[in-house]
Amino acid sequence: MRVRFSLVSDRRLPEALVRHVRRTITDVCDAPDERPVPVPGLNALTWLFDLPEQLPEPFTGALSALRDELRGPAMALAVDSAFITGPMADHGPRAIVTDVDSTFITTEVIEMLAAYAGVEEEVRAVTESAMRGELDFKESLEHRVALLRGVPADVVDDVFAAIKLTPGARRLVDAAHARGAKFGLVSGGFTEVVGKIGADCQIDGYVANGLEVNDGVLTGRTYGPVIDGAAKVEAIERWQEEWDVSPDLTLCAGDGANDLPMLARAGLGVAFMGKQVVVERADCAISIPRLDAIAALVGWDIDG
């Protein structure tokens, strides 16, 4: 079995951790390929190796035990890591799909719109509860959007102008495209903003909710299918067929509870600056507010 294990941090990697990982890997295989992964502003190491059919003690018959032995000390030292098996281990994903709000961009668009209606705090409280999985996403979306009733529709342009991409987001898109991979965005936010982001960043596909407008103001309703966790999965499955990409070569990243279904179906599910419920259930987690840390985890070099 082909395996990649990677460490990434915005600080110097602890020498004791590196020695532990190196020793653990050499105990189970011969001649692992160890190298640094150049990503500006990050420190990363990756190991690519083949596991024997029968793991030696103390990992006999338990791949999860090896994964825990590698990832556990990294987590204790607040160093992000990924244990990747199968076809993605060699060359990385052929498709990356991420959430938008608080993942591809640094903010929640609905909260920015709510500021124009004077209800930002109320909307933020509902958003945070929904992202922790405490509220049904569809119901929470309807409640929050209803509070936007009467907001001039042209404020969407102001919101888009104020949006900041997460550091490394554009760099990750470029790295994917340079390797022939596709990049998609799935959002519980709004087409009117996500579409502009997609065009600006040369995204290959996106889905989001639509904001209904009448007489130049928001009606407080959405149109079209609600993009919840299930709808995100449906969009990804549609793109996988369109792009001829298998699930095990698809990497998904997000921060909230409504991202859990797509993370579970991905070849690698990444909790990006995620809520605790997401961190606990994802394949790996990134705690650095840099989206290009994903490139480091999959072994993609980025220059400049």
TrEMBL record:
InterPro entries attached here? HAD-like_SerB, HAD-like_sf, HAD_sf, PSP
Protein's pathway = Amino-acid biosynthesis; L-serine biosynthesis; L-serine from 3-phospho-D-glycerate: step 3/3
Which cofactors must be present for this protein to function? Mg(2+)
Q: What class of enzyme is it?
A: hydrolase
Q: What is its EC number?
A: 3.1.3.3
Q: What's in the GO CC field?
A: cytoplasm
Gene3D superfamilies to which the protein is assigned, alphabetical: HAD superfamily/HAD-like (3.40.50.1000)
- Hydrolase among keywords: yes
One GO molecular-function entry? magnesium ion binding
Q: Quick one: a GO biological-process term for this protein?
A: L-serine biosynthetic process
Q: Name one Pfam family in it.
A: HAD
Q: What keywords does the record list, in alphabetical order?
A: Amino-acid biosynthesis, Hydrolase, Magnesium, Metal-binding, Serine biosynthesis
Substrates-to-products reaction catalysed: O-phospho-L-serine + H2O = L-serine + phosphate; O-phospho-D-serine + H2O = D-serine + phosphate
Presence of the UniProt keyword Glycosyltransferase in the record: no
Q: Which family does it belong to?
A: Belongs to the HAD-like hydrolase superfamily. SerB family.
Family matches, as NCBIfam families: HAD-SF-IB, serB
Descriptive protein name = phosphoserine phosphatase
Q: Which organism is it from?
A: Trueperella bialowiezensis
Taxonomic lineage is: Bacteria, Bacillati, Actinomycetota, Actinomycetes, Actinomycetales
Gene symbol of the encoding locus: serB
